[in-house]
């Protein structure tokens, strides 16, 4: 501890910042929230909106379990402050289906048994959807490279790659997505 730093007990007694009004557009719907300005997008989704499909993994942006789409691009929601993403279109795993119809990648994950424990699956699927829409699903090697930010502790990588290849063929044919 340096002379400039208050003791830990004094830091614990500091008041929390006042809540701020935030409007988040999640899965096509606007949500008005009063949030601590330090709230991450991940915590806003899970703790304030009960959208628990997006998983909390490492909290450092290294595992990809918290991947969502923002304006169609993959982002790690644990690294973003919710207050800074107002006005952006956020899609979570819960918003990927069309009514009861699974997205082609969700169906391919089931067909290819691309999940084991399932913890990383929502982040893998959201990153895979982006991988396909970005045009990075041309080969297994390209998919592996572009999906390298999403980790699977169970090692289901071969099945995940196969599912993305299957879904890319369906989306590319105009039958889904």
Question: What does this molecule look like?
Answer:
About 30% of the residues lie in helices and about 15% in strands. With about 180 residues, the protein is α+β, with helices and mostly antiparallel strands. The protein folds into two domains: about 20-95, Ubiquitin-like (UB roll); about 105-170, [2Fe-2S]-binding domain (DNA polymerase, domain 1, Orthogonal Bundle). The chain has a five-stranded mixed beta sheet, with helices on both faces. The chain is globular. The mean pLDDT is about 90.
Output the keywords.
globular; Ubiquitin-like (UB roll); single chain; alpha+beta
Q: How big is the Rg? A: 18 Å
Dominant shape? globular
Task: Give the topology string: H per helix, E per strand.
Answer: HEEHEEEHHHH
The CATH topology annotation of the largest domain reads as Ubiquitin-like (UB roll)
Main structural class: alpha+beta
> How much helix is in the residues?
25-40%
Strand order of the largest sheet: 2-1-5-3-4
Number of beta strands: 5
CATH homologous superfamily title of the largest domain: Beta-grasp domain
Secondary-structure blueprint:
Layout: H1 8-12, E1 20-26, E2 29-35, H2 41-48, E3 67-70, E4 73-76, E5 89-91, H3 104-111, H4 121-133, H5 140-146, H6 157-172
Parallel strand pairs: 1-5
Antiparallel strand pairs: 1-2, 3-4, 3-5
Helix pairs in contact: 3-6, 4-6
Concise synopsis of the structure shown:
Strands 2-1-5-3-4 form a 5-stranded mixed β-sheet, with helices on both faces. The protein is 32% helix and 14% strand.
């Amino acid at each position: 501890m340096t002379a400039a730093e208050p003791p830990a007990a004094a830091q614990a007694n500091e008041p929390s910042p006042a809540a701020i009004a935030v409007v988040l557009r999640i899965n096509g719907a606007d949500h008005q929230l009063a949030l601590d300005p330090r709230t991450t997008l991940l915590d806003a989704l899970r703790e304030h909106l009960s959208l628990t499909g997006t998983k909390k993994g490492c909290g450092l942006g290294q595992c990809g379990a918290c991947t969502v789409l923002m304006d169609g691009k993959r982002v790690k929601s644990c690294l973003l402050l919710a207050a800074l993403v107002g006005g952006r279109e956020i899609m979570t795993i819960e918003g990927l289906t069309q009514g009861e119809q699974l997205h082609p990648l969700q169906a391919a994950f089931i067909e290819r048994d691309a999940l084991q424990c399932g913890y990383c699956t929502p982040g893998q699927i959201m990153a895979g959807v982006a991988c396909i829409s970005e045009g990075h699903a041309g080969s297994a090697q390209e998919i592996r490279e572009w999906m390298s930010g999403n980790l699977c502790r169970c090692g289901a990588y071969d099945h995940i790659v196969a599912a993305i290849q299957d879904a890319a063929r369906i989306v590319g044919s105009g039958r889904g997505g």
